[in-house]
Amino acid sequence: MSTDNTIEGKKDGGFYKWEVLFLLWVAFWINQADRQLYNTLLGKIQASLNMSDAEAGLVGTMFCWVLAFCLLVAGYAADRFSKKWIIVASITLWSAATMISGAATSCLMFIIFRSIATGVGEGFFAPSNYATISDYHDNRTRATAMSIHTTSYYLGVILSGFVAGWIGDNWGWEHAFYIFGGVGIFWALVIVWRLKDKVEFKSKAELEEARKHKPSWLEAVKIFFTVPTAIVLTLSFVGLIFVVQGYLTWSTLYLQEKFNMSNTSAGFSAAFYMNMAAFFGILIAGYLSDKVAVKERKYRCIISSAGFILASPFIVMMGVSQELVLVFVGFAGFGFFRGFFDANIYSVLYDVIPAKYRGSATGIMQFVGFLLGAPAPWILGMLKPHLGLSLGLAMLSVVWIFFGILMLVDYKLFYAKDCARAQAIDAQS
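Structure (tokenized):
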């Protein structure tokens, strides 16, 4: 051991990297369950606080904007400071803010504690989280590890959709925020106990010397924006966030209004069919991605592109279908093929970005993604009185067709060259 809170890369054995994955899997599971709370309970919160559709959408959009700006800073911090303690602080802050949100009595209080405070806490989590997984999992297991990790996202949304809906129906929406926030505080303590930062240095002197030569933020930004694949992936991530945030915010209310479902049933259905299908989709795509990457890494782009394009007809189906069973088929198809892109987001990014810039690259990509993708809940909220949620949700398919084609262009023109460049820089470091 090099310090109390670090573990040397060459002495971590084969098991600890999977324990790290488990610790961060649960943390991300809590993170996504927490994030889905507001969406699941939106109808009850609107009625309780007398919020308009535009105000309700603005809370979700403001959350994404705050998240975006924090991600930009968090990515740089992940490359320079202890990822473990950033993760701990992040979980603690968002969980405390969630508990306080349960006491909100106005839209303004929700913006302060949900959009801002929770957004700051969650914003610092992702770069350190993904960079830590990448530290422990190389190209042989990275896509598989990232895919397993992302299943926690789907299960977190499902849990929140069902449990939060049930709590809201039986105890009131406020208690769901108290309970989910308390679970997060508990897991932060587990992370303090078990998670170790991974370092590749044998002595404290080597560690201190390496810290002096950490890349500057401007250097990381320059590297990022000279990699065409990173830019294409970031734009595609914008498309992912735009469609998914629009869906997550309004799908529960969509089922309630169109099919007269209860909060519990609608919350569960909106979360279960899409995310359960995505659970299987991402595992299949992650396994396939690692297999094809051994032969040719750029094939990851084809898998990502296929996910966008094949999901698009199902997005239309879930929006325009008049039969509930067809809506559920649309949810499932949307989720299954969405998993093909999710499985490769960070594997593609880390293939083309040198290792020492990966935390910053994660922050930059997520910053742009959430900044530009965030308006979807607000836009759909403003369009709802004029077009309705059915047409609004169906129109989201156009976004994914466009970015599916863009990923194919990257496969043809840029990906192989960007991979080779990143490997050359890593070899020199």
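The mean pLDDT is 86. Residues 6-424 form a domain with the Growth Hormone; Chain: A; fold (CATH 1.20.1250.20).
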